[in-house]
C-alpha cells in the first residue's frame, strides 16, 4: 500500500473532524499578530520568540503545518509564508484564513520528504511542528530542509517523545501505575501491527505512525549539516497521554541553524 497516500486521507479525516491542530485561528488573533503580539506552538508549548526573531520580510516554509494556525499568524506578522502539507483539507484551512484576512500565503501540497519543487536556499526559516512521526524515514526531511534553507537559516522542529510509544495505558490499577511496556523502540506501526490491526487502521483511516530514534530525530539533523542551538521539552495538554505526562515530558522541540559549508 501507499502509506503516504493513506496518511494523507487519514489527515483529511482528522482535519474534517476538527481536531486541535485543525482549528483555524480567530480574526482577533490575526489582528494581534499584525500588531506584533503573536505566539505559535511547535510541540505542545509556546515557541520562544527568540527562536524566530523578527519574522517581518522573512521567507518562511510552514512544513507539514496546515490547519489555519501557524501559517496565517506568521503571515499576519509580516512574513512571506509558504504552507506545504500533504493534507488538502489542512491546506484548505490555511487558504480559508488567508482569504478571510486578506493574507498572501503560498499554498503547496506534497510530502515533507520531497521538497524538489523548491529551489536551493529559498527560505530563511522552516517551521515543522509535530509531523515527522507520520513518515517512515526522517532523514530525507532533514536533507531537504538543509537544501532549501539559506546559509544561517533556521529549522524549528517539534516531536513526540519516542518514549511515549513504549507504553500502553491501562486503568491505573496495576503495580506499574497504569503503564504497560508493549513496544520496542524505535516503533513502526505498519511493521509492528498484526494483519488484523493493520486492516483496522486502514479501514478506520487512522494515521500510521513511526516513533523514530533520537539518533534519527536529533542526530539526523546534525548529519545533514545543522547545528543545534536550543532545545525545549513540554507536556501534552490533551487527554491522550495523561499517565505518561505524569512521568516525563511527552513533547520536545529543537532549534537548529544551517551551518556554512565551504563550496
Topology:
Layout: H1 3-16, H2 27-34, E1 41-43, E2 45-46, H3 49-52, E3 59-63, H4 70-76, E4 80-85, H5 88-101, E5 105-109, E6 123-128, H6 139-148, E7 149-160, E8 167-169, E9 179-181, H7 189-192, H8 195-203, H9 214-224, E10 226-234, H10 242-245, E11 251-258
Parallel strand pairs: 3-4, 3-6, 4-5, 6-7
Antiparallel strand pairs: 1-2, 7-11, 8-9, 10-11
Helix pairs in contact: 2-4, 6-9
Give your account of this protein's structure.
It is a single chain. The protein is an alpha/beta fold and 263 residues long. It has one domain: Vaccinia Virus protein VP39 (Rossmann fold), CATH 3.40.50. It is 32% helix and 24% strand. The chain has 10 helices and 11 strands. The strands form 3 sheets. It has a 7-stranded mixed sheet with strand order 5-4-3-6-7-11-10, sandwiched between helices. It has a two-stranded antiparallel ribbon with strand order 1-2. Helix 2 (27-34) crosses helix 4 (70-76). The longest helix has 14 residues, at 3-16. The chain is globular, with a radius of gyration of 18 Å. The chain starts with a helix and ends in a 5-residue tail after the last strand. The mean pLDDT is 92.
Outline of the structure:
The protein has helices at 3-16, 27-34, 49-52, 70-76, 88-101, 139-148, 189-192, 195-203, 214-224, 242-245, and strands at residues 41-43, 45-46, 59-63, 80-85, 105-109, 123-128, 149-160, 167-169, 179-181, 226-234, 251-258. It is of the alpha/beta class. The strands form three sheets. It has a seven-stranded mixed beta sheet, with helices on both faces.
